Amino acid sequence: MKKSSKSSAIKSQSWSIEKLPGLSQKDQILLRENGINTTRKLLEITQTSEEKVILASQLKINLQYVKKWVALADLARVPTVSCEYCGMLLHVGIASVSQLSQMSTHKLHQQILKLQVSTMRRRDLCPTVDLVNKWIQQAQFLSLYSGLRKKKEV
Q1: What's the pLDDT tens digit per position in 59-116?
Q2: Cβ contacts of residue 103 below 8 Å, gap of 6+?
C-alpha cells in the first residue's frame, strides 16, 4: 500500500519558462509574447515534429533551439529532476523522460560523474546514486502514466 501512495504523489511538474536553464532573456520574452509561460504549455504545443517546426518558424529561430527547450521541459517534468538537473541530463545525452526511464542507475551515475569531473573538476557536485535512482523511478512512473493516458484518449 505504501508504494501506491508514493506513486500517486508523483505528478508531472510544470515550471515558469524563466526557470528553464539556458534560455536568454530575449528568448524568454519571445516565448511569453507567444503565450508560452510554462514548460507544460511548451510541451503541449510541441508534441509532434511538425509542431516544433511551426513554433520555430513563428518565433523566427533555429529549430534546434526549440528541440533543446522541449527536451529540457520534458526532463523537468520529473519532480526530483526539475529545472535544477534537466540541463545536466541533457548534457550527458538524456533527451526525454522516456529515455531516462530506460537508463540503468549505475550507468547514468557514471556518465554524470564523468561529466562533472571533466568539466568542473569536482566529484562532489555529482548527484548521489540514490537521487539518480529516484529520477529513473519517477521517469518510469511518468512514462507509464502518460502511456496509459494516451491509450485512454484514443
Answers
A1: 999 999 999 999 999 999 999 999 999 999 999 999 999 999 999 999 999 999 999 9
A2: 94, 136
Task: Tell me the sheet residues that pair with 16.
Answer: 38
Helix residue ranges, H only, 35-81: 39-44, 49-59, 63-76
Sole residue written with cell 538524456: 94
SS3 16: strand
Residues whose CB is less than 8 angstroms from the CB of residue 65 and which lie 6 or more positions away in sequence, other chains included? 27, 56
Q: Residue 48, SS3?
A: coil
First to last CA, the chain: 30
Helix, strand and coil percent figures for the chain, each rounded to 5: 70, 0, 30
pLDDT tens track for 7-57: 456 888 999 999 999 899 999 999 999 999 999 999 999 999 999 999 999
**Per residue in 120-129, pLDDT tens?**
888 888 999 9
CA gap 38, 16 in Å, rounded: 4
CB 59 within 8 A of CB 48: no
**How many Cβ atoms sit within 10 Å of the Cβ of residue 58?**
12
